[in-house]
């Protein structure tokens, strides 16, 4: 397995993988084609976007990390907005392997931090803790609805 920047030719496969993962347990998202296209463009088509893919030995995508690069006073930060592994590869240590390979890739490219946000009541929370991410008790994530 190896990690590299998502190739343009693999965009469609990445989008299909995202849809398959998040349309099923435990998320059951209900994406329509238009909203999914807009969301994927938001994630992958910005100057600071960084889309990393995990490829198996047959050069097929089995996971992706979609996020952004931010330059902070302490150095470069990779903010993960979406992280997903093909359902048939889940619960086999592949996600942890992906995180480890991402660490190597980001270290070589002079990143100092990986940051992300997740809900406390989803399996991803414990996955990230197991893989060295720290829950910041002195930080808060805020949301405000602007429509009624």
From TrEMBL:
Ranges for domain N-acetyltransferase come to: 1-147
Which CDD domains does this entry report, sorted A to Z?
Answer: NAT_SF
What InterPro entries does UniProt report for this protein, alphabetically? Acyl_CoA_acyltransferase, GNAT_dom
Q: Which Gene3D superfamilies match?
A: 3.40.630.30
A UniProt-annotated Pfam family = Acetyltransf_1
Q: What is this protein called?
A: GNAT family N-acetyltransferase
Origin organism is Pallidibacillus thermolactis
